[in-house]
From TrEMBL:
It comes from the Eukaryota. Coiled coil: none annotated. SUPFAM superfamilies: DNA breaking-rejoining enzymes. This is Uncharacterized protein LOC102804103. The gene is LOC102804103. Signal peptide: none annotated.
Length: 258
């Protein structure tokens, strides 16, 4: 339906362009920069993806962990790193841009999640310096509590324990930083090894969508899911003062759900 909205607008504009030419006007409105930006905005909000992006569930998280543990070609330290990144992305409802570097060899110090941005106490305290819904870079803090289960972001990060505080939090043993492309590649490879069908429909976004899906299935209230995911829709929900004890119960609740 969303894709049809964008196509209908394009058809409407094409008719305007045609009428514009027939009436003798010389201005090429099709190349107007303002119009082009409006169309890009509409396309962004009403995109029509070629194939669906499937969510990562807790069942899949367990399969990923088992496949990662037995993977013969991944260095043991990289296994710890990938598992920490995956669990952080899931339980933190993170966008891929919030925990990866833009390049395997370079990073934006002001926007990339660094080792110093993740504080390990009894919980994980993650400072997101830049985000899609935080254009002025005021920063957002995400609290992830232990789950008391085998799928736990706190335990995974403690086992990984990044060496450098002033570098991206997630880095391979060969010195390359974890990128969006690397997340998708390793995720699909592990799902394939776990004999999960339709692996091409899983992307780096699957952790965030999976967390939201699992939270909804676990009957967490809508307002809490929106707060956890920092969604701009119904943005007023972000201003609700959420008690810390409620936030700390979320990882354990998600981990118990299939």
């Amino acid at each position: 339906m969303e894709g049809l909205v964008y196509k209908s607008i394009k058809v409407y504009l094409a008719a305007i362009v045609s009428l514009n030419a027939e009436t003798g006007h010389t201005e090429d409105i099709a190349s107007n920069n303002m119009l082009r930006h409006v169309l890009q905005g509409i396309k962004h909000d009403h995109g029509n993806p070629i194939r669906p992006r499937l969510p990562i569930t807790m069942t899949l998280m367990r399969k990923i962990k088992n496949a990662l543990r037995s993977h013969p070609a991944i260095h043991v330290n990289d296994k710890l790193m990938l598992w920490s990144a995956f669990t952080l992305a899931f339980f933190g409802f993170l966008r891929v841009s919030e925990f990866t570097a833009t390049s395997a060899s370079t990073f934006d110090n002001d926007g990339t999640l660094l080792g110093s941005d993740v504080l390990l106490t009894d919980d994980l305290i993650v400072t997101i310096k830049a985000s899609k819904t935080d254009p002025f870079r005021r920063g957002q803090v995400v609290t992830i509590a232990p789950t008391q289960s085998s799928i736990c972001a706190v335990r995974a990060f403690r086992n990984y324990n990044p060496a450098a505080l002033n570098a991206p939090a997630f880095c391979f043993t060969n010195g390359k930083f974890l990128t969006r492309q690397a997340v998708t590649y390793h995720l699909r490879d592990l799902l394939l090894r776990a004999e999960v069908p339709n692996v091409s429909n899983y992307t780096s976004h699957s952790f965030r969508s999976g967390a939201a899906t699992t939270a909804a299935e676990a009957n967490l209230p809508d307002w809490l899911i929106k707060v956890l995911g920092r969604w701009r829709s119904d943005a007023y929900q972000l201003y609700i003062t959420t008690p810390t004890d409620i936030i700390r119960k979320v990882p354990a609740t998600l981990a118990q759900h299939r």
